[in-house]
Each structure stands twice: as structure tokens, then as C-alpha cells.
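--- STAGE predict ---
source: upstream dedup step, 1 unique chain passed
mode: sequence only
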Amino acid sequence: MAGTVLTVLNKSVTRFDKGVGSLVKSSGFAAAVKEEWEIYFELCNRLGKSEAAAVTPHDMIDGIIRNSQFGDQFGENPDGLTYDKLLNEYPNGVELVEHMPTGVLEDFVANDDGLINLAPPELVTEMEQLFADEFFKQPKFPLRLHSLREVLTHNTWMHNAQSLAKSRWDHYARISAEDADRYGIEDNGEIWIRSAYGEVCITARISKRISAGNVALPHGWGHQGGWQIANQRGGVNSNILASDNPADSDRISGGTVLNGIPVSIEPA
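--- STAGE serialize ---
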């Protein structure tokens, strides 16, 4: 499978890998910020779930490449590829096959009928439970809260970048004109957003892009940690409104519900 997928390491992939490394190095984040895999690995160690040596993303990608039909098979095929060989000897990428093979799906689908199951029992059961879930049936909280990504605050770490912090970018919620009238909220007025799990006070702006019944609140604000620039930007932490009850998490992925949270709003 890896040999089929790994047909071309194109220019954009190579430059992206090097570019990210340069960005982290030049910004000084490397010394202050751990990568996600490092955080998860350390959490596992602290919880007593793992005492093995960390397997880095580099190790995993290198293993996939070396085990593929084009790889060096860990020394058995000296002319084959490794992760480092791709980066060092083929900085602009290398074409391994002229065309992607077709008609090979049946070779990779392990189901007895040779078909891809788009409705496995586990997923069907979860969907049925989702539609019947009391999490979404809370009369006291008739609106639904959704996250929102903004250009200059797209990800949390961008809040601590000095070059981006120079721009004026305030944190505020977006609501529809219909809901503003219904709940007596003025444009640029302060509102309380409440859920069954917490509450935050924030400025609200009326937006034509928000449909009635929904509240949009950008995530990643309200820093109170060690990032000094991010701390100065203010805002509120939208996670306060999310449930911390494991029973409310997605039962298949284990993910926390951060969108569609039942909420209410009122003027502050």
C-alpha cells in the first residue's frame, strides 16, 4: 500500500518540510514550544501508559518509505529510498512511476465482499445515539455555538507571533440580526454566552453571514499561560463553554464536542 501511495514526492512537499523548519527556527518557537507528538508522548509517560522510546514523525515517515516498493528495505536494497535520501538527493522531488496504477482497489480492500463499507455498524449506532442524544436537547440553551477561524488568528500559536500581533484584531462573537432582535442585543454590545458547563462575557457583532440560531466564536483566545504576547491580546477561552464530561465526547473518535454546543445569550 505504501508503495502505491508513495509515487511522487513533489516540490511542494519538500519545500513545505524545509520551510516549516526554517519558520520554527527563525521565530524561536523551537526552544519554547513542543510539537504535538512530543506533548502526547509526555502525557502518556506521566499517566504511566508508555515507557518506550519516542517514535518521531521522522522515524514513522522514514519507515513507510523504506518499507515501500521503492525503499531501501533497511539496507537490503542499497539503491532504494529513505527519507533523508529523498530530501538530500532529490530536493525538487522524484518521479517514481509515470502514472498512478488503476484497477487495483480490489487488491487493497480486505472486506470479504471486496467493497468499501460506508455504513459500518459502529458508525450507524453512533449516528442513532447522536440523534437521540440529550446533549443537544436543552431548552434552556436554544442556540448552537460554533468555532470560527480568522485569517490572522487562524491557529493558537499565531497569537504569540509579534509580526501578527501588530495588526488590530479583537475577539468578538458573531450573531444574526434575528437573534439580536429576539434577545435585545445591540451591535458591538457586551453579551453573556452561557452553556450548561460555563459562561463567558464578550462583545457581539451582528453579521449577515450567521444564520439564526447560531453563535460564532473564534477559538484560541483568552491566553493565561506563558506566552506573553498572546496573554496581552485578551479575549475569552471558548473551551470554557464545552463539556468536560467524558460521556459527552464522540464515542468513536473520543473527540470533545467543540462545535454545536447548546448555549444561550443575553445582554451583559
